[in-house]
Amino acid sequence: MPHDGAVISQQIRVDGGYGYGVIGADLHVHADRGPVYLLAEHRGPVSADPSWLLEQPSRLLNARYSVVDFVGRAADMDKLTAWRDESNERLAARWLFAAGGQGKTRLALEFAAVSVADGWKVVDVLLGAGARPSGSHDLRPDGHRGILVLVDYADRWPLSYLHWLLSNSLFHQQVPTRVLFLSRSVDGWASVRSALTALTAATSEHPLAPLSDPPGRDRVARPDDRLRMFRVARDAFARRYGLARAEEIPPPVPLDDPGFGLTLSLHMAALVAVDAHSAGARAPADMVGLSAYLLDRERAHWRELYERSRDGLEFRTPPRRMWQVAFIACLTGATTYSQARALLRRADIDDPDPVLTDHAVCYPPAPPSEALEPMYPDRLAEDFLALTLAGHDVAAYPAAPWGTATLAALLHQDADTAPPLPQPARPITFLTAAALRWPHLAAHLNEHLRADPTLALRGGNPSLGALAVLDGIDIELLDTIAWCFPDGRQLDLDVGMAAVSVRITAHRLAAVSTELERAAVLQDLAHRLSFAGRYEEAAEATEQAVDLRRAVARRQPEHRSLLASSLTNLGNYRTRLGQPESALAALREATELRRQAARADSTAPRRSALANSLSSMGICLAALGRHPEAFEVTRESVQLRRRLAAEDPAAYSPGLASSLHNLGNRLAALGRHREALDATGEAVRILRLLARDSFAEHAGELAIALDNLSADLWRTGRTEAAMATAGEAADLLRRLARENPEAFEERYAYLLNRLSDYYASLGRYGEAIPPALAAAEIWRRRGETDRAAGDAPLATVLLNLSGLWAHTGQWHEALAASIETVAIRRRQARAEPARYAAELAKALSNLGSDLYAVQRYREALAAVTESVRLWRQLATTDRRHVPFLAESLYTCCVVAQPVDRTAARDAAVEAVMLFEGLDLGAGDGHRLTLLAEARKQVAELRG
Question: Of 137 and 200, which is predicted with more confidence?
Fold first, then answer.
């Protein structure tokens, strides 16, 4: 019975004979199409008739049926559990994404089961009325720790539907609510995250790494691990087949093949081994053979169903027609029934209804679709596409005569008359991915991309990257595709566009003859490389462009504007590469050339070019520590761009935002924090408006501006606003770093470390640890390929982590971080003693404290004694190091007492003497405390 005053309200929708009701949530309904989405209590794995599963062995690979016990992914499960339990936010959302075959659905189902056991109400969200959970669903959180909502196929949802979903009262309960979106890519997350921000929800991403990723991630790399996972899958399949003595079934293919880095590959090998053993057949001996074997079993099932129609089974589609429909489904992905009918008619299938009905028998539509459920897993679907199209050499699997025509019908559609593809990127994404393993597909890609080069852009970075390395892709075609690239940044294309640009540059240079044409080719390459974060290569290409344009400008002064453009770009790239001295020379020359041009002709483009060079020079001067000069040139840039934006907001607002952002940084460096906050805040407001219209182009600068705004807010005492802004910046930079690590990963790591510092400054040490750990992981990974670039920031983060773990009483973790920090700083100090001796001294003092905490007193004293010696050497030549020497002496006094009280007393006496010699004021609270403690130690040790 409900408590007094409680009112239970249930909404029921009856549609096409199905009744559906919810309690404790809302129901959004199309007037003519039924529910927009359905909410259902999570029921766990789908049970299926064992004989039905065995009809098509590929069904056994479908995660919905949970045939194989869940193993591995412990790190991902830990991350999901921590996200669910440790967030202080009432509403938190996470975007879990991975390509097909990496196990995201299996992971989500396992997480759901664990959450139910832990006392959470788990709710499945199904898109559209195609999936119909029957009956009434009580979604009230009564008696549960919280609500976990699973949204599968999130990348297929129209944004408006997601907005309706997020407005549902289910997301506005008093208990913690967690929303886990499952997607095949990060595409669409930015828009969803924006809607969640309006609900003050915490947001995060969870890329599911392949099992063959580098050490430190959940992976299957060692032969023993692979064999264990093979055996788990083999035994599970054998039970379904009713086979005893499964241990006698060996792997059909050596498991050290690189293709077995994916769990899916191991499951495929186990399934083929068991099925072949059951049938008394010989299992194939290579990876291609595994796919061909499973596809033969698919076709055999189609044939069996068709032949059974003679015995009264309602199945009228012959195997050849089912082959074509399955091919279409693999290309288009699942869609609505009405759209599926239109797509089949597009492929000259005139009576689609019985065919779709029969296809659903073989491939039952799963939420959120109503028809054309594709073959799973994706790798099998890719192989199916490749074997269907002509040109391969697998004699046992002849190509389909209709393959090329059907592919063309789906790829090249009249936008006015043809039905839109449900997932426009899917065909080209699947084809390019398959082409990396099936070279004959390059010819098909050549044919269709010549007809429509913009198809290449639909697949984003993965497709462009694949096209850039495929040997069979025509170089002229790649050149044509490059002419379709957008002019500026495009988050989901930048990395791929750079790869294509590198591939075609030699071809383009060979096709031109003049110096200016060659310079233009090189400058375009540099732009693409810089957008992808490949600044060193961008600088090399720009240096060549500068040489060419300088030679022309000497002969023809009217071309000096082109030289100024290349010099500005070169200065920018050199600044990014940590070469501000050489960058400044290029930028001064560029600025002078552009100032002369603006004096002679004050048109808007000339003034804009001057503002651009001034802004770049400000960044460079700041990198050199010349902050007053940097402020002056940046202020001039803002003045120019503000006037330009007043004349033409659409054209010049982006430049104004950039200069204001830089001005905020310049003011902050001068200690003028409130003015910096005003400038950066104005930049963020402009960038938000720009990103609303073109997110991919402006997301990068918006993320960095938000990062800087959080720092300005923190410096002006607005800590809560600073934390919220830093969180928003982290969400954006996380996605940007995932899409384009070369351009954004370092910035993301620095922000994570600063976010950790924010938490620590507020005394929230436990919350400070996760972002610091994430930053350390990034720097450690980057250091694997460039130790010089990764060592210094990694050591900084590790030092911070040591302190955080010490504050939370995790002394052994603190000690491990300190030991690694000292190893890095010692290596650096040997190479560059003047630069890193002080950092080594700090790390040694910290190591001494951590060793002391775990009662390793002699080692602690040795570390701190070395720290004191280094500080003493440094203080001899630079008095600014004296305060650090005093602090290290106090640490020496503390750690020496269990081992050598005389050394402890001497250290305390010298520490007091040095502290007393400093001009300590109210702002030196920590050192004043140490002075008082040192005096107390002197008194006690002398007594």
Answer: 200
**Which residues on neighbouring strands pair with residue 14, listed in sequence order?**
19
Contact 112, 44 (CB under 8 A): yes
Strands 37-41 and 121-127: antiparallel
Count other C-beta atoms under 10 Å from residue 426's C-beta: 19
- Under DSSP, is residue 931 helix (H, G, I), strand (E, B) or coil? helix
Q: What is the pLDDT of residue 32?
A: 40
Contacts with 914 (C-beta within 8 Å, 6 or more apart), sequence order = 882, 883, 885, 886, 889
Q: Cα–Cα distances in Å, from 659 out to 247, 360, 640, 733, 821? A: 68, 57, 10, 21, 38
DSSP element (H, E) containing 503: helix 494-510
CA angle 319, 321, 326 (to 5 degrees): 90
Rg over alpha carbons for the chain, rounded to the nearest Å, is: 32
pLDDT digits (tens, 9 = 90+) for 789-829: 778 899 999 999 999 999 999 998 999 999 999 999 999 99
Query: Nearest 5°: phi and psi at 204?
Result: -160, 165
Q: Name the 3-class secondary structure at 129.
A: coil
Distance CA 537, CA 552 (A): 23
Residues near 12 by beta carbon (within 8 Å), at least 6 away in sequence? 19, 20, 21, 136
pLDDT digits (tens, 9 = 90+) for 184-194: 666 557 657 76
Pairing of strands 202-207, 18-23: unpaired
- C-alpha torsion angle, residues 918, 924, 925, 929 (rounded to 10): -20
Q: How far apart are CA 906 and CA 141, in angstroms?
A: 65
What is the reported pLDDT for 737?
A: 87
The encoded tokens of residue 38 equal 């359905």
Residue range 557-585, pLDDT digits in tens: 999 999 999 999 999 999 999 899 999 99
Q: Are strands 121-127 and 29-30 parallel, antiparallel or unpaired?
A: unpaired
Q: Is a pLDDT exceeding 70 seen at residue 162?
A: no
User: How high does pLDDT run on average in the chain?
Assistant: 86
Question: Please, what is the Cα angle at 702 between 167 and 712, to 5 degrees?
Answer: 105
Report pLDDT for 22.
42
From 333, 259, 317, 310, select the one nearest 289 (Cα to Cα).
259
What is the pTM assigned to this prediction?
A: 0.68
Task: Specify the pLDDT at position 135.
Answer: 44
Task: Report CA 796 to chain centroid distance, whole Å.
Answer: 24
Tell me the C-alpha distance between 121 and 112, whole Å.
9
Collapse the DSSP code of 148 into the 3-class scheme (helix H, G, I; strand E, B; otherwise coil) and give the result: strand
Question: Exposed, middle or buried, 282 (CB in 10 Å: 0-12/13-18/19+)?
Answer: exposed
Q: Is the dihedral angle over the CA atoms 120, 126, 127, 129 positive or is it negative?
A: negative
Burial of 758 (0-12, 13-18, 19+ CB in 10 A): buried
Distance between CA atoms of residues 90 and 108, nearest Å: 21
Task: Give the number of residues written for the chain.
Answer: 943
Burial of residue 657, with CB atoms counted within 10 A of its CB: 0-12 exposed, 13-18 middle, 19 or more buried: buried
Rounded distance between C-alpha atoms, residue 886 and residue 892, angstroms: 10
CB 342 within 8 A of CB 332: no
Round to whole Å and give the CA distance between 188 and 108: 19
CA pair distance 197, 165, nearest whole angstrom: 14
Round to whole Å and give the CA distance between 897 and 941. Answer: 9
Q: At what angle do helices 811-831 and 833-853 cross, to 10 degrees?
A: 160
Instruction: Please state the φ and ψ torsions of residue 923, each to the nearest 5 degrees.
Output: -80, 0
Residue that wins the pLDDT comparison between 773 and 193: 773
Contact 220, 266 (CB under 8 A): yes
CB of 539 closer than 8 Å to CB of 586:
no
